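Support request, priority: normal
Reporter: lab tech (M.K.)
Component: structure prediction queue

Hi team, I submitted a job for SEC63 domain-containing protein from Brassica campestris yesterday, and the status page still shows it as pending. I've pasted the exact input below so you can check whether something in the sequence is tripping the parser. The sequence length should be 181 residues. Please let me know if I need to resubmit or if it's stuck on your end.
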Amino acid sequence: MDLSALNLGMIASYYCISYTTIERFSSLLSSKTKTKGLLEILTSASEYDMIPIRPGEEERVQRLINHQRFSFENPNWTDPLVRSFYLQPDCFPNIDLSYEVVGGEEVTTGKEVTLQVMLERDMEGRTEVGAVDALRYPKKKEEGWWLVVGDTKTNQLVAIKRVSLQKKAKLKQERSHTHCT
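Reply from support: The job had stalled in the queue. We restarted it manually and it finished. Here are the results:
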């Protein structure tokens, strides 16, 4: 009798995760899954049951959880699944960036270019923006946002600017690009 692993079994084996976890992912994930749904699916993995709780960690995790985009009602801070749910968003960007080039055919080498950027924070589940929790930083730490413009093909930095972002920001910068084509 010949035995062969199913596709999901091979994936689970390759990534060293349990078969039940990969089966759960395949049954719940779809192209319409939103970020919060993705987080719930990821953190429902049985592998998160093994996350240890270190002494004195509850207060730090609770402060970190208070600043997340998504929330539960009355979460149990010591539950490994709840903690992993709140720690996972750090792996995802908080802002969706899209861009539009207006008059791109008119941009030539040496010509001045106006860069206009509008940023808006996704405030879903939050009412205000405050200091971030930097667990090893001795005092309050404010967010640091940077607008970085570069050419990914040549790995050249075109502009960098520190941005103060509360809920919305609009930036305008005129640059003379000597390497644009």
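The CA atoms of residues 131 and 142 lie 5 Å apart. The mean pLDDT is 72. Let us know if anything else looks off. Ticket resolved.
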